[in-house]
Amino acid sequence: MSHTKQTRRITHASRGTLLHILEALPGAVLVIDDDATIVYANAHAQAMTGATPGEVVGTSLWRCAPQLVSPQLYQAVQQASQTSNPINVAYVSPATKNRLHVSLSPTDEGLVLFFHGDPEPLPHQEAWNRDERMYRDLLESCADAVTLVTPDGVILDINQPTLAGVHRRREEVIGTPLTELPVWSHDPMVQQQLRAAMAQASQGETVRFEVSIHPRTGLSLNMVMTIIPHCDARQQVEYLICASQDISECKHAENELRTLVDAIPQLVWVKRPDGFSEYHNQRWCDYTGMTPEQAQGDGWMQALHPDDRQGVLDAWQVSLHTGTPYERELRLRNGRTGAYRWFLARAEPCNNAQGQIVKWFGSNTDIDEQKRLERALRQSQERANVLMDSSIIGIDISKGEQIVDANDTFLRMTGYTREDLRAGRINWMQMTPPDYRERTLQAQQEFDTQQLVMPYEKELLGKDGSRLPVIVGRVALPSNPAQGIAFVLDNSARKELERRKDDLINMASHELMTPLTAVKLQAQIVRRHLVKQGLHEAAEDLLGLEEPVAQLEHLVGELLDISKIQTDGLEYRQEMVDLDALLREITDTMQYLNPSYTLVVRGAAQTTLIGDRKRLRQIFTNLISNAIKYSPDAKTVEIDLSTSSETVTISVRDYGLGIPRELHDKIFERFYRAAGPRQLAVPGLGMGLSIVAEIVKRHGGTIMVDSTVGEGSTFTVTFPRTRDV
């Protein structure tokens, strides 16, 4: 048959006899050309379609005869046209519900369709009826809207849900283009989208797309349209099955979910079953600085750290192929700062009723702080390992008195073995000599209340009974506060050095005192002889020797005191001391020796102390002397006395150089001096305050300092009050 687009007509002049025969036939006769355009319709056909000859001839069979149109008729027309063989087909008109039987005969003029009114039963008629009923039942029982259309979009059949959606009767829509239904014609863009989808499906491809339609004023629906091509035995597309599903509720729920998702702190995303990223929540976009369009597909990977990309892709492929949950740590770039932060990415597949994955829902949780803590923990663990492996510091872990773990250095220091450790034979208190037991119990109480013990000196008993001087500190383990980790430093070398130093001081001070005393006495004798001989000028010159000798005598005396303190050999007398009289005597002497300074005494002690008058004089002489020496630019020293019912307090205040706060405790240590240039310019060996602190302690008192650099210092001595004068 020719494929010309020209419409052919049968005229009464050229086909009079044929027309007469056709008009006399009892059934309806239609003749159509290759494009299914009607070129002839007899009177019965006109009556059947309800149209005049002018309205029928020249128009498409599918457009002007909805009472006749059906998928079965469409298939029969296609088959007869392609094979040029006659075909009989019986079917029920979707529009009128009338049963029709049509014979299709190819001719030179075109295809003749002869519709029989109510045909006699044909062979297999019952089977045809059953097939048609099954077809109608399936079509009408489908909950989705289903429409059968020609490849160019003309409606061949339509089910009731579709008609209900468009508020039209079946006979009004069959034979019309699908795109002209109100649900599609409201928007030219939507019409174009449907036309493009049908054209794609006409090539044999199933097409699925989402669209928003407006069936009537005030109603908007979200639909998923699936267009499936129906092919004949030769795989030629016969017609298209258009099924639409209302997903408005799902879309509404999805929009509500996305609103909720946009509010949560995680970065949320959705991928299709093939891994294509189709959605990222607002927080994800805000963090990365990317738009939803930029993030779609693989675009989101632009925010991924380059070093993480291959690993992420590999992990994704495993999840996509196995359907197992996805989990991966990765770094994402902050779009505002350009810095990368660590996130934990997780995704779970969402399956439909058939078990097929329809979506991947994923989230990114910020774990950057956790990663920093893990990194710090690793570094801390590495440092701890270095410490535990140290050959200098002994480390032990104890629970109560029992040592449960220790490094090799601790075991070497104490002589114990790993076997002793495993057998529980290393006990902290059993390793403590009796003379250090009280201090060790005090340290345990500090640990129980404060979860730490500041470093202190003690001795340990080794496995062989030997004593080892050590410095010990302890702190509770954060993971188990009942256990403590302690460092143990071998202090034997320092103790030996101190012993030798003390021996040297003791020896030097005794060896120096004898010749010094001799020099002093000899100088006095010579000076008296010179005076008797009238050599007064020479005697005066010799008098100048007495002051440096006195200074040397004072220094040697302090060395002797230090030596005696170390050996507990410093003697104290027990006598009644009038504290007010003693302080007046000291200040008068100091004022006489330092006339350029003003010593101001305020208050009264009105207290008698039981103690060593000489040692008490040593305390306040030293404090006032220091106040004068360290106040080169201030000429006033204040001494304040006050009492309470239990104590007596004496404060010595100067307005001199001052002492840095971090050195307030150190200045009472032996031989310690502040290292500033102005302090070092003052002569001294750093012994005075350590001697003062020891004497105050032996009298049951305390000494404290309050000082600010550049503003001066106040030393406060407090004694327990014994008896009012």
TrEMBL record:
Residues 207-259, 326-379 form the PAC domain. Pfam families: HATPase_c, HisKA, PAS_3, PAS_4, PAS_9. Residues 507-723 form the Histidine kinase domain. It is an enzyme of class 2 (transferase). Keywords: Kinase, Phosphoprotein, Transferase, Two-component regulatory system. SMART domains: HATPase_c (SM00387), HisKA (SM00388), PAC (SM00086), PAS (SM00091). It catalyses: ATP + protein L-histidine = ADP + protein N-phospho-L-histidine. PANTHER family: PAC DOMAIN-CONTAINING PROTEIN, PHYTOCHROME-LIKE PROTEIN CPH1. This is histidine kinase. It comes from Dictyobacter halimunensis.
